[in-house]
């Protein structure tokens, strides 16, 4: 199986879906000739032309809103937000419109839009090019939020998002784009949205996380294995709605649970995961639920000292895992 | 002999009678809704009164078998012309399960019916403008000859979505018609506190598109402006911003008291140039309508509204647990 990067998996998923269905098109800032500021849409403009790879005016509410209109008509737009941080001007369109179109029309209309955005820190992006924004959308029924960790998952889940008849927010970790590589079949395949995935089997502690932090946990788990502890790692993949069954099963498996996100801690995705475990696994736990996350400050600062302090990394994950294993 | 105005516009005598009928029907349904509200039978009304000429004049300039409309909450005249029935509007007023707009999920005025290409709307104002642009984009991509028509109030023309949407449509030459129904107030706030240019349509210059202000009490003037806008759009000439100026004859909604922010005399003066009266007079002058035929028309419409009200009042509500349905498609 060919080994490709995380961002190449994004491009391939889009290209294959555009080849498969002429209703699929891309719109966003600099997505055309430039191929995206991260090059996620590289080559698509040349292959499909400016009609299907649309450089829009610099206005996020219109990128989302025009996409929503086209989706209601029956097209399958893939709207790119240049950075997840800049999705904010489009929040009204996403929460008031996309999320509610099916429900408010009593199933008479639907909105099959995919909104992609690079998120995440550790790239010297400072406050406004580093944020995790998923928690804002994660109590909005009607939306689905996918945050894949591997190139394999990216391709399968992005294709599923594009084919979904509901709006999907697809957050890609920008540091994973070129850092993470993996095997991706050339063939067409989709992965189910809403299903978590066990990335490592183990009996001593459970780590539940998503996105780039999955890789931090995997690395930490290898070190911990040398010290005699085997970690079970569950990758949420879809952070809304959550795969409750998989979360409960993973928590029960070891009775010791570490939850990791690089987002701010309070009110984050892992807060909800923690509540699910507390509700269902009270008598299966051998230690208090442990959370590792960014501090509750507005966002990640620029200077390397402060950025490193904010950002989750393999060492921090390993330390938290060890502490839990020894509890 | 000089040609009659409506003939000059290519409208037949039947067309203008139909126009008048839809205007009167919208007005009479709206009046009934207020009675039902004041009688405690329906929780909320938001009115078309004063804007029927703009709505029906515009809707008749569209192709109701092809075009997509994205109306705002006052557009009863638009949706009636596009095939929403009196009974369906009443079902929506009573929030009953059979309401095609939302099955009783949304307040009245939140129109939507895919079969008739009436696109579902929400409460936050102006969000429908970018949606209309998305429909226009679809028409262009699919090389189809229809337009997307959307409306909003003058206060709502200050929202970012108005500017972002129209600019996008202009840059991509999309077949969209943006119609601002300027009724001089946004709840209590008068026009002069909303914008500092003379007309909402002046803003068209900033987007490089056609802008025009017409008398919103004259359905023929609106018909003409929208017909031309539609022709331009279909021929690749891009979007237009048409402003119809009229007056909101009712309080903002059934929950508003307008006496605290505007004078009775102002409302009374507006009622004298109410389009239902002035367009009725035109039809009488040209011999298409008489007091007698108008009364017959009203009697028939009253009967239709009575029956619709009865039906809607007796119809069932949605099952409580049905509130859980249709969050996602693949359930
Ligand atoms: C984004 C948003 N802000 C505020 C409101 C509350 N609101 C509803 S209608 C309205 C006034 C709208 O005035 P205008 O656009 O002139 O339309 P009109 O009601 O006069 O037809 C306001 C403030 C809303 N629905 N949406
Ligand atoms: Mg107004």
From TrEMBL, chain A:
Pfam families: Transket_pyr, Transketolase_C. CDD domains: TPP_PYR_E1-PDHc-beta_like (cd07036). Keywords: Thiamine pyrophosphate. Residues 4-179 form the Transketolase-like pyrimidine-binding domain. It comes from Evansella tamaricis. Its cofactor is thiamine diphosphate. The keyword Cytoplasm does not apply. It comes from the Bacteria. The lineage of its organism: Bacteria, Bacillati, Bacillota, Bacilli, Bacillales. This is Alpha-ketoacid dehydrogenase subunit beta. The keyword ATP-binding does not apply.
From TrEMBL, chain B:
Its cofactor is thiamine diphosphate. Its EC number is 1.2.4.4. Residues 21-320 form the Dehydrogenase E1 component domain. CDD domains: TPP_E1_PDC_ADC_BCADC. It catalyses: N(6)-[(R)-lipoyl]-L-lysyl-[protein] + 3-methyl-2-oxobutanoate + H(+) = N(6)-[(R)-S(8)-2-methylpropanoyldihydrolipoyl]-L-lysyl-[protein] + CO2. Belongs to the BCKDHA family. This is 2-oxoisovalerate dehydrogenase subunit alpha. It comes from Evansella tamaricis. The lineage of its organism: Bacteria, Bacillati, Bacillota, Bacilli, Bacillales.
């Amino acid at each position: 199986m060919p080994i490709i990067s995380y961002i190449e998996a994004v491009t391939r998923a889009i290209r294959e879906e555009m080849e498969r269905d002429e209703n699929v098109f891309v719109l966003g800032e600099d997505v055309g000739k430039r191929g995206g500021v991260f090059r996620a849409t590289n080559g698509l403009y040349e292959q499909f032309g400016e009609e299907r790879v649309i450089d829009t005016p610099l206005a996020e509410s219109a990128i989302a809103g025009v996409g929503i209109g086209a989706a209601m008509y029956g097209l399958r737009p893939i709207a790119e937000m240049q950075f997840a941080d800049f999705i904010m001007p489009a929040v009204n369109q996403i929460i008031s419109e996309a999320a509610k179109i099916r429900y408010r029309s009593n199933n008479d209309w639907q909105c099959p839009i995919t909104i992609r955005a690079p998120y995440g820190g550790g790239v010297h992006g400072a406050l406004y090019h580093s944020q995790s924004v998923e928690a804002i959308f994660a109590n909005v029924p009607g939306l689905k939020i996918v945050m894949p960790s591997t190139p394999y998952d990216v391709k399968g889940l992005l294709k599923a998002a594009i084919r979904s008849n509901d709006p999907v927010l697809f957050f890609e970790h920008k540091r994973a784009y070129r850092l993470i590589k993996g095997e991706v079949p050339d063939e067409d395949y989709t992965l189910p949205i809403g299903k978590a995935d066990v990335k490592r089997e183990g009996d001593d502690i459970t780590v539940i996380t998503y996105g780039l932090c999955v890789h931090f946990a995997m690395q930490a788990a290898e070190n911990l294995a040398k010290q005699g502890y085997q970690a079970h790692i569950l990758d949420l993949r879809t952070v809304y709605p959550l795969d409750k069954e998989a979360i409960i099963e993973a928590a029960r498996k070891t009775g010791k649970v570490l939850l990791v996100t690089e987002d701010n801690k309070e009110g984050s995705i892992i807060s909800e995961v923690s509540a699910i475990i507390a509700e269902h696994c009270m008598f299966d736990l051998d230690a208090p639920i442990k959370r590792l996350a960014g501090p509750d400050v507005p966002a990640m600062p620029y200077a390397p000292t402060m950025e490193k302090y904010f950002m989750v990394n393999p060492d921090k994950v390993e330390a938290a895992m060890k502490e839990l294993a020894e509890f | 002999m000089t040609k009659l105005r409506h003939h000059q516009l290519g409208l037949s005598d039947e067309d203008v009678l139909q126009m008048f009928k839809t205007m009167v029907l919208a007005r009479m349904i709206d009046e009934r809704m207020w009675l039902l509200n004041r009688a405690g039978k329906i929780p909320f009304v938001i009115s078309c009164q004063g804007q029927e000429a703009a709505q029906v004049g515009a809707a008749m300039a569209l192709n109701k078998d092809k075009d997509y409309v994205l109306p705002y909450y006052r557009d009863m005249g638009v949706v009636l012309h596009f095939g929403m029935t009196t009974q369906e509007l009443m079902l929506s007023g009573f929030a009953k399960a059979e309401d095609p707009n939302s099955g009783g999920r949304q307040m009245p005025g939140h129109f939507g019916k895919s079969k008739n290409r009436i696109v579902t709307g929400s409460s936050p104002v102006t969000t429908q403008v970018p949606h209309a642009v998305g429909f226009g984009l679809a028409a262009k991509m699919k090389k189809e000859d229809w337009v997307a028509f959307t409306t909003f109030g003058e206060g709502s023309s200050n929202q970012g979505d108005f500017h972002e949407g129209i600019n996008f449509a202009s840059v991509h030459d999309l077949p969209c018609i943006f119609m601002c129904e300027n009724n001089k107030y946004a709840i209590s706030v008068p026009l002069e506190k909303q914008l500092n240019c003379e007309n909402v349509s002046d803003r068209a210059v900033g987007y490089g598109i056609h802008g025009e202000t017409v008398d919103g009490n004259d359905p023929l003037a609106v018909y003409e402006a929208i017909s031309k806008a539609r022709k331009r759009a279909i021929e690749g000439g891009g979007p237009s911003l048409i402003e119809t100026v009229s007056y909101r004859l009712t309080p903002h909604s059934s929950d508003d008291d307008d006496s605290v922010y505007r004078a009775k005399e102002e409302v009374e003066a507006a009622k004298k140039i109410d389009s239902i009266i002035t367009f009725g007079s035109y039809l009488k002058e040209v011999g298409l309508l008489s007091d007698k035929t108008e009364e017959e028309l009203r009697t028939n419409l009253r009967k239709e509204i009575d029956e619709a009200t009865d039906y809607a009042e007796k119809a069932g509500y949605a099952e409580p647990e049905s509130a859980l349905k249709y969050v996602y498609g693949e359930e």
